[in-house]
């Protein structure tokens, strides 16, 4: 008989062998207290350390645990996406594996859900143990994105959130290849609210979000939810073209009405620099969008699951969704 799952907790995991046992224990402690059916759905995003073995061990001992192993590292956002695809709870909660998001906030989120909210996101009031570069760049990025996006996206909010089943059903339909999950959830709508918290230090190990992944995430966020960069290309293009014409007319007038000899070398150099500079910039911006369009045109699966363990007990077993 299939058991109805009340709460699904999705935990994306990449090389977290050091913290896995502690986060499993802390999550279990919190969820046991809720006296409801739950599943802990770990998505192993192609870890290369002992994460896989540890997860399989935990899954064998605990029927509430389900594990997806990706065939390689597909990235945090796709790990969350796979979790959402496979989750079967009435309510789905996404939380990091490194205990930076305290599991103890889950009951507070559920409380809000019981009050009738469909999405409860956790907003960071402060972040402990992170470099000032990370704090500053994140803060700037959230504010910029909120300003330029077509829809409001809450600032200082990561992926630690609760979502009602109906939100997840919509998320599954979106099918974007480079998903920016927090933006997608804002875009979906329904009744959304926030709770606030202080983000803890990572329990152990290093961040799995190096600069390269942070840049990819911000570009996904911006290109998925804002057309400003494309419009910027227009503004910049028009401006430089305008300057070019003006310059040409000034020279023409000087040449016609005065006997002023024009030394064009400096002017030409500046003009070339401005024009080439802006052309390259525009091409770069268009390239970002094109790359994403190209991704969407390709009918590749978004992620590949190597193994799905623990799905026979409890919740419905799903075949490959990717
Ligand atoms: N993560 C992932 N795939 C990746 C990078 C990270 O699944 O390619 C997971 C990671 O294990 C953690 C969460 O995403 O559970 C957030 O990553 P991390 O804590 O390293 O990011 P930070 O908190 O430093 O921004
Ligand atoms: Mg972290």
Task: Tell me what you see in this structure.
50% of the residues lie in helices and 17% in strands. It has an 8-stranded mixed beta sheet with strand order 7-5-6-4-1-2-3-8, with helices on both faces. The protein is an alpha/beta fold and 322 residues long. Magnesium ion is lined by residues 96, 98, 100, 202, 207.
Largest sheet, described in full? 8 strands, mixed
- What is the typical, i.e. mean, pLDDT? 86
Silhouette: elongated
Radius of gyration: 25 Å
What string gives the helices and strands in order? EHEHEHEHEHEHHEHHHE
Quaternary organisation: single chain
Helix content: 40-55%
**Poorly predicted segments:** 314-322
| Count of discrete structural domains | 2
Main location: membrane
Protein name: Glycosyl transferase group 2
Coiled coil: 17-44
Subcellular location: Cell membrane
Write the layout of secondary structure elements.
Layout (H helix, E strand, L loop, with lengths): L6 E7 L3 H17 L4 E7 L6 H11 L3 E6 L5 H11 L4 E4 L11 H9 L4 E9 L4 H17 L8 E8 H10 L6 H8 L3 E8 L11 H15 L2 H30 L6 H34 L7 E5 L13
Parallel strand pairs: 1-2, 1-4, 2-3, 5-7
Antiparallel strand pairs: 3-8, 4-6, 5-6
Helix pairs in contact: 1-2, 6-7, 9-10
Outline:
Helix content is 50%, strand content 17%. Helix 1 packs parallel to helix 2. The structure holds uridine-5'-diphosphate and magnesium ion.
Overview features:
single chain, 322 residues, alpha/beta, 2 domains, eight-stranded mixed beta sheet, 8 strands, disordered C terminus, binds uridine-5'-diphosphate
